[in-house]
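Summary of Year 1 activities. Much of the first year was spent building the evaluation harness for sequence design. The harness presents a backbone, in tokenized form, and records the residue chosen at every position. We chose the following record to illustrate the format because it has been used consistently in internal testing since the harness was completed.
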């Protein structure tokens, strides 16, 4: 199994941007959100199971998961959220493991937004990298990207592990305050570190 680093951080912290910078330097990137989108696309494996469990109203006309409707249900009902996760998480984990194992890059960045919350990826990664950003910056990023109201963004944040706990459990931290040059410098330094660690392993 290639040397893999788990990349995580709260919603709006900039995980995708950081992962893209690592990819530009030659790292392999496996993104569990991307895998989840693929698995819930038109006619994909998870969609039929979701329709059977939750009803056809959670599937769009083209056969994909209705993400907005399902997100609303999951945030309103913890039991329904758990049922959804029991369908999706094993499929996502298996596909992530397959992609990491098949990577030919010198090391892999495995992007898992809920890395600490799920506990399902600890055996795949050798280190954990947390992207850190202040709360107001994160709220503004999510608001611009997803057009969600502030209350909904705060509810999502509240459902995630606290940033202080995330930082306590991190092996490495990248600070993302919107300064691209500073971000690139931090990624470059960690890229060199991960190349060394991968070579040693």
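For this record, the design step produced the sequence shown next.
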């Amino acid at each position: 199994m290639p040397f893999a680093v788990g990349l995580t951080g709260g919603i709006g912290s900039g995980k995708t941007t950081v992962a893209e910078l690592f990819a530009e330097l030659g790292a392999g990137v496996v993104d569990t959100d991307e895998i989840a989108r693929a698995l819930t696309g038109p006619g994909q494996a998870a969609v039929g199971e979701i329709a059977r469990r939750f009803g056809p109203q959670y599937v769009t006309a083209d056969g994909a998961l209705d993400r907005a409707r399902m997100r609303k249900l999951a945030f309103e009902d913890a039991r329904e959220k758990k049922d959804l996760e029991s369908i999706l998480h094993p499929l996502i984990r298996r596909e992530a493991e397959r992609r990491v194992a098949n990577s030919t890059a010198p090391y892999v960045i495995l992007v898992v937004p809920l890395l600490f919350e799920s506990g399902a990826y600890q055996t795949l990664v050798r280190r954990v990298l947390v992207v850190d950003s202040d709360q107001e910056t994160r709220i503004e990023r999510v608001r611009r990207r997803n057009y969600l109201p502030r209350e909904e963004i705060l509810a999502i944040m509240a459902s995630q592990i606290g940033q202080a706990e995330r930082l306590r459990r991190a092996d490495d931290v990248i600070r993302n305050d919107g300064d691209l040059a500073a971000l690139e410098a931090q990624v470059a330094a960690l890229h060199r570190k991960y190349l060394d660690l991968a070579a040693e392993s």
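Residues 40-104 form one domain. Quantitative recovery figures across the full test set are reported in Table 2.
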